[in-house]
Specification:
Length: about 70
């Protein structure tokens, strides 16, 4: 009988000068270098930095779920 998977969750903050999507993708790509079996993410907060009346940087807090190995 195959066991049901167990997941662990960790918090990350990605940043980008381009977009919210890019900030998410940057965080996941960096985490994937050291975490195996990443299977999902959940956005928990979006914020940014304003400079001279314009958006200078997007920051996105995400929870990343990865499957725990047997």
């Amino acid at each position: 009988m195959q066991e049901e998977p167990v997941y662990r969750r960790t918090d990350l903050v990605g940043s980008s000068k381009q977009s919210v999507s890019d900030a998410i993708e940057t965080a996941i790509a960096r985490a994937a270098k050291t975490l195996r079996h990443i299977e999902w993410f959940e956005v928990s907060e979006i914020r940014g930095r304003v400079q001279d009346g314009k958006v200078a940087q997007y920051q996105v807090s995400i929870k990343v779920g990865f499957r725990v190995e047997e």
